[in-house]
Structure formats: C-alpha cells, structure tokens
Design goal:
Number of domains: 1
CATH topology: Glutaredoxin
Strand content: 15-25%
Radius of gyration: 17 Å
Number of strands: 6
CATH architecture: 3-Layer(aba) Sandwich
Largest sheet: 2 strands, parallel
Strand order of the largest sheet: 1-2
Order of helices and strands: HHEHEHHEEHHEEH
Distance between the termini: 22 Å
Amino acid sequence: MFGPDYTAGCPSCSAIADGFNGSVVHLANHDVTLAAVSRAPLAKLQAYKRRMGWTFPWASSSDNTFNYDFHVTHTKEEWEAGAVEYNFRSMDLRLPASGENDPFITRLTASVGTDWPTYRQEGPGMSAFVLEDGVVYHTYSAYERGVDGLWGMYQWLDRAPKGRNETGLWWRRHDEYDKR
C-alpha cells in the first residue's frame, strides 16, 4: 500500500482502505483486529493516514521482514532474476519492453511518485493470523484479485447496472476526484 520510496499511498490500495474504518468496530466485537502493514516509515504512514482521515491501526514494517516473509515485497535480487514468489507462484514482475510507454503504467507509477520496479516491489496482499496458547498461526492469505472482496466499493459496483465499468486508471484517492 505504501512503499518506503513512495510519495503517497497506492491509489487502489487507498480506495480499499477507505472501507476499513467502518469495519474495525464490528470486527473488534468478534475478537478480530484489523491492522494494515506497510514498509514506509511510521511517520510517513501517520501523515498519510491523517490526510485520508483513517483511524484504523496501521503499522510500519520498515525495520523487519514481515512483508518479505509473506511475499508481498521482493528483494532486488529476486526482481533482477525475474522470478519472485507472489500469489503462490513464481512470477516475473519486471516491466516488459512494450510497457515502457504504456499510459496506464505511467499514470500508476506517477501516482506514487516512483518508477515501475519501485512501485511493483510492493504487491497487494491480505493475511489472517490467530494467537492460541502464546503461538501465532498464519491461517489465510490472498493476493492480487483475491483482495477484491476487501474493496467495498467493488461490491457496490458489481451490482450496479454497468458493473465496474473500468477503463484505465479510473479510481483516485478520495480527496483527488475533483482534481482532474
């Protein structure tokens, strides 16, 4: 959602996170804690959280390997080898030569103030854990389109007459819709 070299949070991840505030209280009353984790330094996350008006817990993993452990962040060596583990398979996330002038990729990377390798070093993912008898167990993970269920807006659009009606980079951070 927010890599250490980003100037702002990813717009699509931010759109997903816009729905978290309303869920936190309901989850807490079912003994479930929702928390977001990103690699940017905590001060950068807190500033963005204030900008977006979010209140859910958001932790920084900048000083540990959490995101690497769950294969949502990839090392420079993995990237250069062209084989990263993501979404339960090996993938090459490097930009194909034809993508260098792709307007979608240009807009996407510009939206976080970086280039494709820096942007794509961070991938979307969601994991669940349980603490039992002092032991933490990893119980679930989803990546890529598997996190669509968390994107509350998609659930509404999927039921609208024109569906998602997606063309290009159509979503924005909620405070940017009037800034076309």
